[in-house]
Amino acid sequence: MSVVRQQALTVVAPVALGQEVALDAWLRESKRELQRALARSSTTHFARWVLLPPTPDEEGRTIGERHLMAFETNFDGELQEHVADLRAALGSLLDEAFRGVEGYPGCDTLADLSDFFRKNSLRAAAFYIAHGGLSVPVVHGDAALRVAVEARLRELSRGARVEAGNALALAQDLQRVALGVATTGGLSLGPVERGLNPNPPGIIARVLLYPFGVLLAFFLAPFFEWLDEQKRKRQPSFETPELRAKRDGIGVEEDRVDQNGLTHLVALKPGWYRRFALKMTVNIVTALADAGALTGRLGGIQTIHFARWVALPDRRLLFFSNYDGSWEAYLGEFVDKAAMGLTMIWSNTIWYPKTRLLLFRGARDEESFKTWTRAHQVPTQVWYSAYPFLSVGDVLKNAKIRELLGSKLDAPAAERLLALL
């Protein structure tokens, strides 16, 4: 089986003036229909449509005259095939979902649609994948195999005990069940080549790509952090009625299933230094994302399926994340295990909690960090997951079970298989 590469698609295009209210209403009303249609896609892991409103900069001036439509996916394979898959799955819904978006050509001609997506796509930064190389069909197939062998275990159980001669005999019984399911359903057994780099460039290697730039960014940090503190007295309140209403609306949409999606949009601080420091720090955080892809843990966090930052041309920073569990637990893990990585990047954006040397404090101030994150979070009109009830841990465990079920079992392998069930 050839390696399946996961990629990120981020299409951002302006919405025609006056069309944003109608588009927002249609997306919200059609959310379930879009989600059901996306379930027919064999290449889409996660997707969302979200309207990005104009937002204030550090001086209170509005960035953006119009709303932007952001359509993002995490997908398998190459862009051309993914666009064709989306077109086949969504049909006329795709045209409705982009109604009023400037330059959208309609989906009648695949070449025109692909060209629109390609021209309006923005590059992902520090792109993290927890289960790279496992395609949507493989993830679903692995889950089906686990359900089948666990059902067989229940058949053999009498109370808390499983009636079997020994571990190897039991594992071989489960293997026969799995083989039958795989044959009937066209599923894979055994290892899948995931294409993971076993030795990704580490932080030192990343720093050495821009050694003088990284040194300069950290050397100048104290001066620009001092300037930030002089401006902090102008920081707006995050407890306005408008922000409370927005937080309440976002909260109502969260925790519907075992996963959630976070969309976050915030302006960069003004001046050349912050764009420069962001480039240097994203380079470092990319090393953390690459290392985490090998274990499915980003900085020790095993609840993130996909995550990335995207720099908009208007000096705003967009963040997408698809994660397990609640918002509170997710942000809490960030604070406990990945505060430095977040602070390196987000310290370059407006009103981020007080930071030292681009690394320290910042996200460690948990209350301020959570308040700041909520204040810049954007309501997501449509969010989709291809496997909403599978955690990162489930996906990776199911893959190990499938590998063992497809191997030649001996006593140690049988013990490992049963320990996973």
Walk me through what this model shows.
- By secondary structure, the protein is of the alpha+beta class.
- The chain has two domains: 318 residues, no CATH class; 86 residues, no CATH class.
- Helices cover 48% and strands 18% of the residues.
- The strands form five sheets. The protein has a four-stranded antiparallel beta sheet, covered by helices on one side.
- Strand 7 and strand 8 form a beta hairpin.
- The protein is globular and about 75 Å long.
- The mean pLDDT is 94.
Give the SSE map:
Elements: E1 6-14, H1 20-29, H2 31-38, E2 44-52, E3 55-56, E4 62-63, E5 68-76, H3 79-90, H4 92-97, H5 110-119, E6 125-129, H6 136-156, E7 157-158, E8 161-162, H7 167-185, H8 203-207, H9 211-231, H10 241-253, E9 259-267, H11 272-295, E10 304-311, E11 316-324, H12 327-337, H13 339-346, E12 355-356, E13 360-361, H14 366-375, E14 382-385, H15 392-405, H16 411-420
Antiparallel strand pairs: 1-5, 2-5, 2-14, 3-4, 6-10, 7-8, 9-11, 10-11, 12-13
Helix pairs in contact: 3-5, 6-7, 6-15, 7-16, 9-11, 11-13, 15-16
